[in-house]
Input
Amino acid sequence: MISTDTGTSRLIFALDTAGGMDETLHWVDLLKDHVGMFKVGKESFTAFGPALVTEILARGGRVFLDLKYHDIPNTVEQAGRAATRLGVHMFNVHALGGLEMMRRTVRGVVEEAEACQASPPIMLAVTVLTSLSEQDLHDIGFSVPSVSSLVVSLARQAQDAGMHGVVASPREVAPIRAACGKDFTIVTPGIRAHTLPGDDQKRTRGPRETIAEGADYIVVGRPIRTADDPVAAARTIAGEIESGLKHRDTSHMSRNIIPVGG
Output
């Protein structure tokens, strides 16, 4: 079992692949001792359904169910209850679904976990997708001073609703931490040591600096999946996470992580 407070435990591998179930589970078998969690997103969940989550759990892996629920409050609450019964360790909703949607989901998940005699999964709210730039938000119709201001506003609302934390770009980690405090979990995709060909992530940053600024978990997909040696790539990123944690220690910054052992 991976320790719950190491560089490895804070690394989440984005499992979405273009192959079949066997190829997907190959990545689980290859990386289960080198990452803390597997992110199952829309691509893989649509292809394989709950069976994929069950297979990951059977192999000793942990699951971040990244389906970004966004619907009326009752629908999202019921989805959250189902995710709890499925045994995931983390799942997310869209903060733009509103305060009531998030509050209902939190309440339903806590009740469901109690009924199952289990710990509730970590509940996160997605703020602004890392593929969106400030210009994109203006094109959609948001009249906000900056991406960061919208992200912080959504993070505060998620915290008020009782969510454990948020999913946010690496560039918004510091302002969220300042606004929401040390006990608020921040999960960060868009982690890149360098630009990748055809990359659609816009607000990116490296692993070490993202953790040093206050992120709790980072999500990495293509930089590991496309590496010549994926295991070595995962170990390198875990090492960068450790370095970022040490920087936080020396800077007297508080660390926060919700154990994912369940």
Notes: Residues 8 and 34 are 6 Å apart (CA to CA).
